[in-house]
Amino acid sequence: MKFHALGLMSGTSLDGLDICYASFQKEVSGTWNFKILNAETFPYSEIWENKLRNAIHLSAEEIFELHSEYGFYLGQKVQEFINQNSLEKIDLIASHGHTIFHQPKKKFTVQIGDGRAIRLVTNIPVIYDFRSQDVLMGGKGAPLVPIGDEKLFSEYDACLNIGGFSNISFKENGKRIAFDICPVNIVLNLFANKLGKEFDENGDFARAGKVDIELLEELNSISYYKENPPKSLGMEWVSEHIIPKLKGENPLDILATFTEHAAVQVAKVFNDHDLKKVLFTGGGTYNSFLVEIIQSKTKTEIIIPEKEIIDFKEALIFALMGVLRMTNENNVLSSATGSSHDHCSGILV
């Protein structure tokens, strides 16, 4: 059976809303084939970027208001995308929403963007809130993308995504494990902003800065890096454990040091697990300096795919998760999140 689905993804780095329109077909063998048919990133306006960036500081009432408002925004952007591309066959919309709070130890995670609002605007079945069920089941609610790595990209030893955070998934002892490695663009973008740029293009700022060895050692000694998976990171963690360490430093040197730090942590995972071939995706893949440093620290072969996969792999996989939800198949792997068992997640409206 063939499905046509739209996947929506908004990441912590606030680059914009990714929309991916793809077809999926399940083979007799149980594997899935996919084709990206259209994909686009809708950059956030300054107003929306500020709303999402500062949502963590809102009152409960204001968050509920934003949840609804952002849901209608998503619906409008989807409708715009559908009209632009004259799309006719759409079985479902799968929306990740935008993460505001992520505290699995306290049994909650919040992704705003009410799916019912998207449904009202588009009149297409919508699946949303993919993370909460896993958290209630004792999982971290993240990472969810490994189900797509397993079903769509199994020819690689591992899949690494470099976005606001770097996260990886790979098979070990017959099970796919996954975890957040370390913050990346969520920190790099912050200090590139101080130098008048939205991000550190090609890692040019980092290349021009000087690595602070003392700060690098302090960053590398953070206890999270010694924890065993499953484990995941959120903005609150960065605010508590990373940002205070970076105060009072030259932005160029911070970018140089933090880029080195991210490379050290990524390469360590490759080497510890003897990974031979890794697929790189996410905006950080374009940071050639970061990729260069990672490669200098490992013998792992780095595979950089076509731009469509780099930019839209996460949105593509949420579209697949929506298809799996529609067919009542498991779309969350407990081996990746730490929940009690594999399950089928997402609210359908």
UniProtKB/TrEMBL annotation:
It holds the Pfam family AnmK. Its EC number is 2.7.1.170. One of its GO terms (molecular function) is phosphotransferase activity, alcohol group as acceptor. It is an enzyme of class 2 (transferase). InterPro entries: Anhydro_N_Ac-Mur_kinase, ATPase_NBD. The keyword Transferase applies. Keywords: Kinase, Transferase. It comes from the Bacteria. GO terms for biological process: amino sugar metabolic process; peptidoglycan turnover. Transmembrane segments: none annotated. The keyword Transferase applies. NCBIfam families: PRK09585.2-3. This is Anhydro-N-acetylmuramic acid kinase. The lineage of its organism: Bacteria, Pseudomonadati, Bacteroidota, Flavobacteriia, Flavobacteriales. The gene is anmK.
